[in-house]
Prior knowledge:
The complex is a heterodimer.
Chain A: E1 7-12, H1 15-20, H2 22-35, E2 42-47, E3 59-62, E4 66-68, H3 76-85, E5 95-96, E6 103-104, H4 111-114, H5 132-137, H6 142-150, H7 153-163, H8 175-184, E7 191-196, H9 205-212, H10 214-228, E8 232-238, H11 242-257, E9 273-279, H12 288-295, E10 319-323, H13 324-336, H14 338-342, E11 352-359, E12 365-370, H15 375-382, E13 393-398, E14 404-407, H16 417-422, E15 431-436, H17 441-455, H18 461-478, H19 486-500, H20 504-508, H21 511-529, E16 543-546, H22 556-560, E17 566-567, E18 575-576, H23 586-590, E19 596-599
Parallel strand pairs in A: 1-2, 7-8, 7-10, 8-9, 11-15
Antiparallel strand pairs in A: 1-3, 3-4, 5-6, 11-12, 13-14, 13-15, 16-19, 17-18
Helix pairs in contact in A: 2-3, 6-10, 6-13, 7-8, 7-10, 9-10, 9-11, 10-13, 17-18, 17-21, 18-19, 19-21
Chain B: H1 6-15, H2 17-24, E1 29-34, H3 37-42, H4 44-58, E2 63-68, E3 80-84, E4 90-92, H5 97-109, E5 118-121
Parallel strand pairs in B: 1-2
Antiparallel strand pairs in B: 1-3, 3-4, 4-5
Amino acid sequence: MSEQKRINLMVCAGTGCVSAGSLEIKKVIETEINKRGLEKEVGIVLTGCNGLCAGGPVIAVYPEEIFYQKLKPEDIPHLVEEHFLKGRPVQRLMYKMPEKRKAIPVMSEIPFFKYQVLRVLRNKGLIDPEKIEEYIARDGYQGAAKALTEMTSEEIIKVVKDSGIRGRGGAGFPTGLKWEFASKVKSDIKFMLCNGDEGDPGAFMDRSVMEADPHSVIEGMIIGAKAIGANKGYIYVRAEYPLAVRRLQLAIDQAKEAGLLGKNILDSGFDFDLEIYQGAGAFVCGEETALMRSIEGRRGMPRPRPPFPAHKGLWDKPSVLNNVETLAGIPQIILNGAQWFRSLGTEKSPGTKVFALTGAINNVGLVEVPMGIPLRMIIYDIGAGIKGKNRTFKAVQLGGPSGGCIPESLIDTPVDYESILATGAIMGSGGMVVMDNNNCMVGMAKFFLEFTAEESCGKCPPCRIGTKIMLDILTDISEGKGNKEDIETLQDLSHDIIATSLCGLGQTAPNPVLTTIRYFRDEYESHINDRWCKAGVCRDLCSFHIIEQLCTGCGACMMACPSKAIMGEKKKPHKIIQEACIRCRTCYVTCKFNSIKILPAKFEGDPATLVEVPAGAGMRKEGGVE
Amino acid sequence: MTRLTIDDLKKIKEKHKATFTLREGGYRAKITVHMGTCGIAAGAREVMTALMDEIAQANVEDVIVTTSGCAGLCSREPMATVEIVNHPPVKYVELNKNKIKEIFKEHVLNGNVIEKYAMVIGSETTY
């Protein structure tokens, strides 16, 4: 970068924005800028994930830090002319709070960004992840330089231990302790490994870190390698993350060329070489012993521990495996010290945590918050609440298929390892799937169990057979073939599978079932006893009815119904023909007057007797009297 | 890229300082060139180009340049506002490329307001 620009456009090129079309937006911006002769004044940078994926494609304009979202190619000529040339930011393209009309121009004033504290994601959206110079300009490789030239292995481990950082992959094991175990084992060869096998449905923290700031992961690995005395490392990434693989490979190549990987790094006498190993996407390969087997070229299956990888890991050599987010946080800890790290978070869960916020929420995206903040703040302040009118928060699934759901009554739970564990969920790697009143909790449990049953490697029977039996029971319940004993059987099976499975996959697989039974037992019971899925998700257990008193006869449901099952004259109450209804729920979602109710399957009689009809109902106007 | 030393890391950081001042804030001076239709018609584009060249030549890292719309005094365009942090902004009027270069050197770099080109010191009060 030789010449100074007056504007820097940070175009998000994370996977979310790229699929929303950000690369095309960049092309159009370039054309428009050239047309106006602004190319010397405006610099365009492709960054990693900005975080507010729901608004993609997004760009941030510096120096004013103005944030634009949901850009379309046709918006660009106007935007370039007005803002970049004439200095008049375009309100129409800015972020607005749900249901509000006022635009918030400046990124740091948007609640989604305002309540976040960026440490692991400190470079997100600020640097070009494909340029090592930009990483270095933001203090990159200073931590590695310090660790390699000024610190002994023991000193590094002490700082990491004192910082209290715990593994961000989910289990929360203290990173410093892990390093200490491996450093004390004598061996001519040791391995430093990075776990980028992120596989939970709805989780994309690690992918975003690898895409937005790949050098931070590499730097963390150099520091870890020095601490444990390893000279060789692997980053295990699933092949389904092509952009992350590409950016990591580019970063490794750049670091090698700059002498930051390879022999005698920064003239310290320390050698460390790094390679990417692409996994084929099996969930079980996120388990450490299975991951190591996979790198060895064998089928990814876990083995009993001990011996722990610190003693016998990859190719039976002492190995340390850390999660992407953990490693990306290490350089800052070395640079700023253990106390700095502890300045945020709680005593037992210090620091910050990255979460992937998805599901029924307005601001789907990537967030980093201090440990210990209430769940409510993440969902309502940062996430801007539940998406859609007439929708309410029901539960949030933490920890993906290994975790559990946390219901509305516990929404003030502080987000730290212990408090989350007490609810029956787990912190996990940071996937946060938000569910609203239209989600069936039996269906949720079934969904996650389908995933774990399929991903079970099959080595140990409790996991292989147990998850399948549980899934069969859940399928029966959701199809109206449930028995009274099913809930108890599910609980018993869960405890057995947890107690006897070989690895974390089986040991955690029943968590979604256990927590949904714990907090939403009534839903299981109404499925089994009343053949009634109150959310209207399980098609065999519901029927849809229009409450006459509430129907205005607007006809919206009739238009929306794909199977022409709704009849009625304009301005008169409509009716659903049960025989023709496919229970797709479209009418229920479409009705603005809340007049469609979900009742048990094969319900006959007056629906108004089963549901509350508010007093004075009857918005329908008879006779046209105004 | 050649093999880096620890010194090189610091040098790279220095070299990119201006870029990150722009992205992270922490600038010392901000120059706003008024680029409404009136400003552009009167030659604001030329003023901007001259200013950008001057900044590149001076190799300063703590000055940012922005644009804004019409300042409301179309007859005296091209105009620019110079804001040194912690000092009141100064509005300059009827600029050309030589004047803006002079303003940059004298006001932005040396801290002396050029009164003969200035219209007013301080912003309009808004109620």
